[in-house]
């Protein structure tokens, strides 16, 4: 059985979600962050699909890191 020294640390788990809902986001740029030669670019549909998949992976990894940090703080 898992016993924690400070279980109240786990109450901070939804903090990133709350901050994202309350604080205003950064303004979006219309230009590309990375420029590639025309011959190396992907079709627009494939590029968007891989970009959204990569964003979800990054978000999942950030949430996992946050939860592991909270578990470590709770001992």
What does this structure look like?
With 75 residues, the chain is mainly α. It has two helices and no strands. The longest helix has 31 residues. The mean pLDDT is 82.
Q: What portion of residues belong to β-strands?
A: under 5%
- Give the number of DSSP strands: 0
* Euclidean distance between termini CA atoms: 14 Å
Mean pLDDT: 82
* SS summary, helix count: 2
Low-confidence stretches: none
Q: What structural category do the secondary elements indicate?
A: mainly alpha
State the order of secondary-structure elements, H for helix, E for strand: HH
Largest sheet: none
The radius of gyration computed from the alpha-carbon positions, rounded to a whole number of angstroms, is 19 Å
Q: How helix-rich are the residues, as a percent range?
A: 40-55%
Instruction: Indicate the overall shape.
Output: elongated
What characteristics describe this protein?
75 residues; mainly alpha; 0% strand; elongated
SSE blueprint and pairings:
Blueprint lengths: L14 H8 L21 H31 L1
In short:
By secondary structure, the chain is mainly α.
């Amino acid at each position: 059985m898992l016993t924690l020294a400070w279980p109240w640390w786990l109450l901070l788990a939804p903090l990133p979600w709350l901050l994202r809902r309350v604080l205003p986001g950064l303004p979006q740029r219309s230009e590309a962050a990375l420029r590639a030669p025309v011959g190396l670019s992907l079709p627009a549909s494939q590029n968007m699909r891989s970009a959204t998949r990569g964003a979800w992976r990054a978000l999942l990894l950030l949430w996992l890191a946050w939860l592991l940090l909270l578990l470590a703080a709770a001992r």
